[in-house]
Queue: 4 jobs
Job 1
Amino acid sequence: MKIPISKPYFDDEEEKIIIKPLQSGWVVQGPFVKEFEEKFSAYTKIPYAVASSNCTTALHLGLIALGIKRGDKVIVPSFTYVASANAIEYVGATPIFCDIDLRSFNLDIQKLEDIVVNNNDIKAIMPVHLFGLCANMPKIMELAKEYKLKVIEDCACGFDSWIGTKHGGSFGDCGCFSFHPRKAISTGEGGMLVTGIQTLAEKVRCLRDHGASKSDLERHLQEGGSLLPNFNILGYNYRLTDMQGALGVTQMNKAQKIMQARRKIAQWYNEALADFPLLLLPQTPENFKHSYQSYVVLFSPSYEGLTLEMIAKYNKKRNIFMQKLESLGISTRQGTHAVHTLKYYCDKYYFKEDDYLTSLAADRLSISLPLYPQMSESEFDYLINSFKKVFG
C-alpha cells in the first residue's frame, strides 16, 4: 500500500468549474477570483480578502503596504518555511530570528519579549501559525501595541485555525494564506491577504496588479473600459488566475467538510499514538482550535534538556524510522526547517546551528505524518501497523 504525505481534495465539482473560465475566455484575474475572495472573507470573518499568486507574494505585498523597507528589522521564528524570511529579505529588511516553543512549534513568547525589549529598531513581527496552530496572538499583540510594532501573520498553514472566535490572520495588521497542494484548501498555487483595514486592502489590490488604479474586471464592468488605468505606484504582477479562483470557489464550498475530515484523522492519530515511545504528539492550548494542516510529532524522549549531542543522537534514530516507513510505502517529511541553518542565511548572517537550539531540535526531530481528508480507515490501520512493525 502507498500512503502519500498529503493530497488535495478535488472531485467532480472542481472538474466542472475549471471549464467555465475556459469557455468564457476570462482566464486572468476576474469574477471567480472576486467570488473566491468574498467566500474566504465570509468564512474567516475578516472584512477584506485580496487574492495573490501565492502566500509568499502576499507576504511581500503586505510588508510593502505596511511600509517595511530597507534597513528595518522584522522578527520571525527561525523554525518556519524559508518563504517567511525570504519575504522580509525581498523588501531589503533584516529578519531577526526568534526561537520557538517545542510544544507548539510557534514563537517562544518570553524570547520574543526579550528581543523586543532589547532592540529599539524592530519595526514588525511576523508570527507564523505553524502546522495549523495559531501562535499566541493575544500576547504578541500586547507586545506589538506597547512597542508600536506592525504585525503581519504568516497564516500559510492557518486556514480554519482559531483562538476563541477569532480566525488566524484577524489579530495583526494583516494575515497571509497559502493554497499550495499540501494546504487544507488548494488552488494548485495561490495566496490570500486578509485585513480589517480598508486602506491596506486597497493598496495591496493595487500593488498586486502592476500598481494599476483600476483592475481589468473593474474596467470591463464600467464605461470607458477601453482606456488603460493610471499607474501611480510601482507594482507587481502577483495576480491569481480565474481558473485558480474557480477552484478556490469550490474548495470554499466544501471547506467545512474538508476540515471535519482532517480533524477526525488527527484524532485517530491522537488515540493510536498516545503510548508510542519517542513520539511527542501535537498539543493544543485551551481556547485554541488546531486545523492540522500537518500532523507533526517530535521524535524525542522529552521537550526539555535537549543538547546538541542528544539532538544528533535522536536525529539519526528519526531518520532511520522515516526510512523504514518509506520502505513500507509510507511518506513522511520533517516538519519544516530551521532557517538559520540554511546556507543563504548562514553565509549572510554568520549563524551557528546552536544559535537557536530549540529550532534546531524541531528541524532535526520533527516528523510530519500523512494526513488528507480522503484517508480511509484501512489506510490508517496499515499506517499504524507499520509503525508498530518499525518500532518492534
Job 2
Amino acid sequence: MIDCSSMWAPKPSVLQAIPVGAVGDFLTRREWVQKPSSLPTSRYFELKDSALHYFFPASDHLADYPMRVLDFIENFARFYDLDPHAVLAELQGGQRAEPVRASVPA
C-alpha cells in the first residue's frame, strides 16, 4: 500500500472555509439522511437502509473544525473509493467526486 500522507496536506484555512452545509450536501447526494442529533454541537446522519451513522459538527466555529473536515474527507474518500482532492473539490462547490478507476476504459 502506498502512503499518501505526504502528498495530501490541505491548509487549515482551506478546510475552515468548507461550509457545514457542504458536508451535509455531500452525504445527502449519497443517500445519507440527516436525523435529529442527541448532541447539540453535532449534526447526525444515517446511511439509508443501513446501520451506519455519522456525526459532524453543527458549526464551523469549533477550534478543531479544520481537523474534523480533514477527517471527513479522508474517511469518505476511503469509504467511497474517491480521490481526497476530488472530495475537497466537491465540498468547495465542484463536480460530484467519482470513484477512482482501476483501469482505463476501452
Job 3
Amino acid sequence: MKKAVVTSFLVFFIALTVALFSSNWWLTFINISFYIAQPLVIIGGFRFIYEKGFFDVTISSFKRLFRPPVEIDDENEQENDEEKKQWGAPFFFAGLIITLLTLIFSYVR
C-alpha cells in the first residue's frame, strides 16, 4: 500500500508540474493525471492478475504440450514464488486511486 501511495503522489506531482505551465491549469492537471493513471491501471491490472497465478494452469499445459520427449520424466519444474518480483498490485491500486480522485476533482469544479 505504501508503494501505491508513493506512486500516486509522484503522478500528481508530475501532473501538477505540467499543469503549472498551462493557462487552464486545473483542467490540465485533471487530464494529465487521468492520462497517466490509465496505463497504470491497465499494465498493473494485467501484471496483478499474472502474479496471482491466473494463467499458471494455461502456462503449465503449454509447457507439457510443447516440451521434447526427453524431458517427459522431469516433472519437478516448480518455480519459486518468492523470487518473483511483485509490482503489479501497487501500480494497479495507484492507478485506481488516481482515477477515482480525478473523477471527483472533475465534478468539484
Job 4
Amino acid sequence: MSLKNASSLSEEKNSISDSNVHELPTVENVDDVHELDYSQEEYSRLLKKMDWILLPLMWVAYGVQQADKTGISTQALFNFRQDNGLVGQQYSWCVLLCQFPMSYLMQRVSVGKTLSVLMFFWGIVVLCTAFAHNWAGLMVLRTLQGLLECTISPSFLLIIGTWYKTSEHASRSIIWGTANAGFGVIVSLCMYAIGNSATNHKSGLAAWKGISFFLGGTTILLSIVAWFFLGTPREVAWVSKEERRIAQARIVSNKTGTDHHKRRDWKKDQVIEAFLDPSTWFLFCSVVLGALPNGGITSFGNLVYTSFGFTSLQTILYGIPQNVVSIFWFLLMGYLCRRVPRSRFYIMLVSIVPAFVGLLALALLPSSNSFRWIKFGMYFMTVTSNINGLLLWMHVPSNVGGRTKKSVVSSIMFIAYCVGNAGGSQFFLAKDAPRYIPALIACSICLGLEFVFILVWRIWLSYQNHSRDKAAEAAGLTPEQIKVLGAENGERDMTDRQNPHFRYNY
C-alpha cells in the first residue's frame, strides 16, 4: 500500500475523529461482537479451557497422523520391502501424498466432524496396509491415506485461527507441533516392543504387519474422541452460547475475520488476489524447499541410521534422543515467538543453519565406523529445521485475510508441502544406498535456498507494514483507530491486502 491511499484513510479517520477510544465504532454492525464486551478475566478463563481441551487432543491427533505417515520408514527396517517385492524406486513412490482441494470443502462443512470421519477412514487404510503383498496394492493404500490425511493440517489451521489471537498462533501451534517428536517417542517404544517380539518369534506375525495394526487401531480410536471435542467455536458442544460469543470477541483484533458467520460464498476477486499476491509465492517456494529434505529424511531417515552401522532395533532406540532434542527446540522457539514480537522469520532463519551444516557434514564425512558417533551428532542437528514447516503454515491464519483467499492460499501451501514431500523421497535413489550422499547434498542445497527465500520474504513484509504505517500517519490515524478500523474490515471479510489497517506478523 502506498501513500496515495492516505486520502481514503483520512476519510475513515474523519468519520471517527470526534470519538474517544471507548466510543470508537467497533464491530457492532456485525451482530454486536466486539472485544470490549468482556473482561480480561473472562477471556483468560476461556483461554484456559480452550488450552486444556484443544491442545492435548490436537497434540495426539497430529502425532498419530505423523506416526501413520512415517510408519513406513520403520517398517522398512523389518523386511517390508522384501515381503512386498519392492525394488529400485518403488519404495519411494509409497510416500506419495495427494493434495485434494479440502480447504474448499472445509469452507462448506463442519471442520471438526469432517476431520474425525476422514480420520476414521484413514485409520482403516493404515490397518489394511498389513494385508498388502505387492507394490500396486501399497500404492493404492498410500494414495488413499494421503488423500485422507492431507485434511488434518488445513483443518488445524482453521481451528487455531478461529480460537486464538494472532500473538498466540505460533506458541499454541508449536505445542501440537511437538507431537511429531513427542508422540514419536511413545510410538518408537511401542514399535520397538513389536519389532523385538517379532524378532524373538520369527514364526509369528511379521513386525511391519504388527506396526500397521497398532497404528491403524490407534487412529480409529482417536477419531471417535475427535468427533465430540474437535472443531471451531461455532461447531463444538463443550462451550456455552456465552462462551462461544466470548471466543468470537477475543479474536476480533486479529483483523482476519472471526468464525461468527459461516461464509459459504466463494469470492472470485479473492481467488485472483491469492494468486497475484507475492507472499503466496514466497510461501509456496519456502514450503517446497523445506518439504523436499523433510520428505526424504522422513521416509529414509532410519535407513540412513543403519548406514552408520546400527541394527534395526538400535535405530529405533537411538532415534528417541533425536525426538527429545526436537521437542526442546520446539518449546524454546515457541517461548521466543511468544516473548519477542515479530521474531518468527528470524527463528526460521536460525533454525536452518544447524540442519544445513549437519546434512552437508553427513555427506562429506568419510565412510568409516570411527566416524559413527560424529555422524550421529550431525544427524541430530537436522532436527532444528523441523520447526520451519509449522511456522510457515502459521502465515495463513496470522497473515491472510478473507475466507476465500485463506482457503485458496491454504490449498496452494499444502500442494507445495505434498509436492515437496513426494519429490524429496526421489532424491534417495536405490543405487546410492546406504549412504545416499547425492541425496544429502541435494537436501542441504534446498535448505540454503529456503534461507534466501525467507530472508527476502521478510524484507518484503516489512516494507508492506512500513508503507501502511506511513500512509496511516499521513492520514492522522491513531493506533487505537487503526486497530478498530482494521477489526471492522476483517469482520467484513476483507483480505489482508484490501484492508489498509492490517499489519503483517513476521
